[in-house]
Write a structure and sequence with these properties.
- The complex is a heterodimer.
- In chain A, 57% of the residues lie in helices and 9% in strands.
- Chain A contains five helices and two strands, in the order E-H-H-H-H-H-E.
- The longest helix of chain A has 10 residues.
- Chain B is built from four helices and two strands; from the N terminus they run αααββα.
- Chain B has a two-stranded antiparallel sheet with strand order 1-2.
- In chain B, strand 1 and strand 2 form a beta hairpin.
- The two termini of chain B are 29 Å apart.
- Classes of the chains: A mainly alpha, B mainly alpha.
- At the A-B interface, helix 3 of A face helix 3 and helix 4 of B.
């Protein structure tokens, strides 16, 4: 199970889900599914999101058993 | 998976015109192709990685349904031919095959099962995909 801090980072950068989705090239539904832990991103998508928020993948996505 | 300009699933929508031919010729089998018109609704949907994950899951479910339905059909036809009616080899006379009524029904059933299983497989795929889309939209509304 992957937990994310995407909501916090979106709030920090004042980004809506649609805007973030547009920046990384996915649908808004994908961002919503990521934030609610219903979908685990591919490595490329995780890295793209980390790049948008100027941080590392490990900082945004945490794996929990 | 690359992001494509047009969602590839939407191209299946053109198969819906085969259903229009079915209406013209009053063919119930071809009319089922009208279901493919649903695929045009995917033309505006971006084909991102979550979409392809859903397509893979829907495809796998349709594959399993197809396998199970085919096994049931094959076993039914085998039992019918071997144990119930005990068909012998088909005889021919001057390029004409001589079939009993039940043998003819058996061949009709083979054709029918092929069509029915294809329809069931396609319906499983598209309805599963629609279910995933519906779930995504539902969770989107809940998170707003």
């Amino acid at each position: 199970m992957i937990k994310t801090k995407m909501k916090e980072y979106r709030a920090k950068y004042s980004l809506k889900q649609e805007e973030l989705a547009e920046l990384v090239g996915v649908r808004r539904e994908t961002i919503s599914s990521l934030e609610n832990g219903r979908y685990n991103p591919s490595l490329k998508l995780a890295m793209d999101i980390a790049q948008i928020f100027h941080t590392t993948v490990e900082e945004i996505f945490k794996f929990e058993d | 998976m690359k992001h494509l300009k047009h969602n590839p699933i939407s191209y299946f929508g053109w198969l819906g015109f085969i259903g229009v031919i079915g209406i013209y010729y009053v063919s119930p089998v071809l009319t089922v192709f009208l279901l493919f018109f649903f695929c045009f609704s995917y033309s505006n949907m971006k084909s991102d990685e979550l979409f392809w994950t859903n397509v893979r899951q829907a495809g796998f479910r349709a594959f399993v349904v197809n396998i199970v339905a085919n096994i049931i059909a094959i076993m039914y036809l085998f039992v019918r031919a071997t144990f119930i009616y005990k068909f012998d080899t088909v005889q021919s006379n001057a390029n004409v095959y001589l079939l009993s009524e039940q043998e003819y029904v058996q061949y009709l059933m083979c054709c029918s099962f092929f069509v029915i299983i294809t329809i069931i497989t396609l319906c499983t795929f598209f309805f599963t995909l629609m279910y995933f889309s519906h779930k995504e939209k539902k969770y989107l509304k809940e998170s707003e």
